[in-house]
Amino acid sequence: MRVRFAPSPTGALHIGGARTALFNWLLARGSQGALVLRIEDTDRERSTTENVEQILDALRWLELDWDEGPILQSQRAERHHEVLQGLLESGHAYRSTATAEDVKAYKQRHGVQQGFRGERREGDQKEGAVRLKVPNEGATVVHDVIRGDTRFEHMHLDDPVIARSDGSVLYNFAVAVDDLDAGITHVVRGEDHLSNTPKQLLVLEALGAPQPLYAHLPLLHGPDGRKLSKRHGAASVQELREAGFLPEAVRNYLALLGWGADDDATVMSTEELVERFALERVSRNPAQFDETKLRWLNGVYIRALPAPELARRLEELTGREGLAQAARISQEKIQTLADFWPLAGFFYDGVSDDPKARAKWLDENGKKTLAQARAALAETEDFQEQSVQQALDAVQERLGCKPRDIYQPLRVAIAGTAISPGIFESISLLGREETLHRIDQALTKAAS
User: Fold this and answer.
1) Cβ atoms of 415 and 352 closer than 8 Å
2) pLDDT at position 123, please?
3) Which pLDDT does position 124 carry in this prediction?
4) In a domain? residue 94
């Protein structure tokens, strides 16, 4: 099996493109085949070297490697021209100076359902664009592993332009030639490419070349059932990385968009995905990308990480060092790496200020409870988590209050908000001196 991932470098790698890359990668790795990376940069105005690097960077972050490439389509112009000349000489293609108005007038004469057919005219052989001849009879059938057969009647197809008058070839021609030369056996890509497929097959037929097997993946929708876009959250791989998602969790989630294992498993290692993935189980119905579900799955992966590895990734994302202990006590409460700093940044940056939390938890009752907790903590022999818990349990028992009536004023005092990692772990990590200092500051501020 030889597959390819062929993005156009007109922007960042979006989530749909990442899923296409993943499905091709899973097929190649599961079959001991090869994945070819081709950059389809024929759009001269929008294709940039920066966008190419963005795509490569996204694939590396997702840990999707490739066996051949990256091949730049623009660097294959000589080969494209050679094949184009061959089609002109064999009569499978012809020069045409027909304009859009000429095509419109042709269809008015022959009926709008009739595809445009150009004519060779004396003097036109060296001028104009190049069109591929489409047979008048019959049909081109796309054999698709996911969608079944789709039939395109030739009478409805225009003779497609395959090269501009300046000799530069168009997308569908270049793709067909490149797939042929790379020996691609399976073309796995988005459903939006289905309408391009008959044009590419007609090029291959004119060249007497075999057809690859096609698989057009279903579109991605948001939870609201509309086509996936920026309004549904992260739109690109880079945005997922910046939002603190783990590449292994993203791979797992993307694999489930339109595909599922026969036992409906949700959490699967990459090794399991490689072993179990099959095109035959890809649905033809649109798949829903739901960032809430991705967050949940990412949280599962975060909790499964060894604490030192979680700390390493957090330090890489934040550019801060010495996060091991805070990472350990935050691990159960975060779903993404980006959740960490809002939760635990107070250990490093000091107390934040949440006026609503202060008003709610440092009222008269809160101040009294906080003063009692401070006195108990000051007498604690050591500041280990168990000792802190015992001291606060004793205060709760003496006051006959609910745990939150003690824990929440403490959280507001040491963190500035009502949300933190476990209160015993947080106090122990801050240490006696800093904890008592922050409590004193909170009491002073509440009294003023």
Assistant:
1) yes
2) 46
3) 47
4) yes
